[in-house]
Here is the input.
Amino acid sequence: MSSSPEKAAGKLLGASCAGRGVSAEVSGVASERRLRLALGAALFAGTLALFARSIGFEFLSFDDGKYVTENPWVLAGLTPESVRGVFTTFYAYNWHPLTWLSYMLEFEL
Here is the structure.
C-alpha cells in the first residue's frame, strides 16, 4: 500500500491540509514570505534614500539648547537626584523624562 508524500504530509499536518496539495500550501507560505521580505527591503531602501542626506547635517538650534546643552538635569548626568528630578519637574514648558534620561546617558558616555 503506497501513498503519496503529499497525502502523508496532509495527515501529519491535520485536516486543514486535507483536500489541498501540501506543496501548494508550502509554496503559498514561501510566496507570502518573499513578498514580505521584498516590501520590507523596499521600505528600508526608501527610508535610507530619503534620509541619507541628513547624515552630514549639523545639530539644529531650534530648541536643542534648552533641551540638551542648557538643561541642568541633562548636564548633571545620571545621578539619583537628577533621575528623580526629570520625573518630578518641568523644564522649558515640557515634561520629557525618558528623552532627558537618554540625553543624560549620552552625556555620561
